[in-house]
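Annotators were shown the component list below and the corresponding predicted structure, then asked to write short factual statements about the assembly.
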Amino acid sequence: MTHRRSAAWALAALVALTPPLSSQASPPDIAQERAAYAEWLATAPNSPLAAVAQQPIGAGIRLGPADADVPIEGVAEHRVSERNGVVTLSGALGSRVVPAGRPISFGAYSIASGGVPGRRVVTIYGPKRKTKSAAYYDYATGVVFVGPLTPAEEPAKVRVLALDGIEVDAVEAGTVVVPFGGRPVTLRVRRIPTGEDESELEIYFRDATNDQGTYPAGRFVSLVPAGEGRYRLDFNRARNPFCAYSSAFPCPAPWRGNTIEAKVEAGERYLGGGLDAPRGLEAK
Amino acid sequence: MRAGVLALAGALAAALAMAGPGAKPAGEWRAALELAGGELRFGVVVERDGGGWRGRLCNGTRCQPFTAVTQAGDSIVLEMADYAAAITAKVSGDSLAGSYRNVGNRGPRIIPFRAARGRWPVSRAPERLVGRWDARWIGDFGTTPRVIDVRNGKAGLEGTIISNTGDYGHFAGQMTGDSFALAHFDGSYVYLLTGSLSGGGGKPDTLRGLFHAGIRTQTPFIAVRSTGAPHLKTVTENTKADTTEPFRFAFPDLDGRTVTEQDPRFKGKVVMVDVFGTWCPTCHDAAPELVKLYRKYHDQGLEIVGLAYEVSGDTAVDNRQVRRFREKFGITYPMLLAGINLTDAAAATLPQLQGFTAFPTTIFLGRDGKVRRIHAGFYGPATGAQHAKQVREWEDEVRKLLAEKSVSP
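Structure shown to annotators:
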């Protein structure tokens, strides 16, 4: 939902509501989200920490042998193809449909499909996963803003990589202006589909902490509706794209213009081990 | 401020003192998911079941069982296995606090949850709100039609939302002044309709508000009272089929035996093909009606076959889900594992259909095996008269087809 209003955002009056024990303590909802995310990373079959490869299907790909498009040790030859948007995994024992976002077993591995019809990709998950988890800055009270979203003049569809490295048909939702470091910064907002009837208003941004504590390619943060056409933008909720966890994932190119000159020392940090991030590259 | 902090600390200490192994989850709870745009109210009931627990999730008077209820220390876990979802909450005396979550693609889908003992108060809708409303969901690229159906039931304000392909399930809610909220939560779908009623005094009544899906997706809507003129597509307009050839299918049954339209049990019979999924709430609404028709007309030549499109794509898992569905509804007609629940994937397995859009889709075949009618979607009991009309149309169609002479395909 969008309403045209003054573009100025204000610091949310959150300080009075945070627990008085410590100004650095995370509110319970953020602590809960982070705990749930850590558990998901450690246990979910489609956790990026378990991914071994993500590959566009194109005209079809081979999995398994050493000379395959995706070599997988100990796995016999399989082929993956896409027809009418349906992804099929074929091997000596027959063929199976590969659902979107829901891994099916495949020997000791599992495989899921994703992306838009005609440009589907598959992600392969292995029996082992990396043990690292997400790390965060201490909770920061000065990076929570509430304000309006200025809608795009002409809403347009745009195909972008979501944080899981998979193409989605997003919508240019508009812009927000936040007073960061004493200067107004305009950030582009896109609506990213997340499920039936559901979507997220997301900002993929870069800031002065990139490569200096946070992932070099930037981070995602969501707008949360705050009532009466206003939104809460809490950079404590900034999170890494999946390419920060595993080089199996392609990295989204930072969205043009979404650069904050100041340091956003809030949200998720970078512990290393991800894809070498694209530098100096911005999407149109 | 300090006094407030002390009071909060006291309450917390009291709650902690009541927690632990002695926590008593049994009873009725007025529960809520805390969405960004407001609270989604529903009911939870937890009861003793031998040495363990059982429970149910209720939208107004409509309840569904949790697949498992377990207690771990001072926490209780309410599982909804069909949706790989669970509510985990700490029991502190007369309150529950925790979260609902299910597995997402880019991280867990997590929504704060809380509950207090008791039932939500019954709230009745004024006559001005009761009835059918022609609504428009306002999206990025224009509007899409919906119907909002509001009435007063045993638990007060209730209703549903209807699209071109079926309904969103049973909603229950409350009204305060001119503002209303109607909620539906089934373990997977998280829907809340909030808005206000304006008009009167010579001005037409209008509803304006937000449709909330999940924790933070909000779509504005506007609605005017229905005049009775068509606002949605009819259920037979969405999906078409090749009617020149017999309808073909070939899928394994739950014992792994491939069943096709050539099976002797279908020869010369009227056949209803139910394209469904055990994950699909509307399919749960349709199943009892199919069972009734089967029991009533099977001896006269009606056959039904269920084509299941399931979540996991794992045969063993999907087989288990469909068997549970079969037992739940007492289904005796064959059920086949046809594929996964992606519209594109399902459509690819039924190439004779054009414009496949909805689960369930019900295909009526004449005694010659050719498609006579296709219903995309299903209007569940929550739609009241529309549900009754559709059930009547199904039965009329079955009787009409049964009355046709047998032919050799």
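Statements collected:
1. Chain B has a mean pLDDT of 88.
2. Residues 385-403 of chain B form the longest helix (19 residues).
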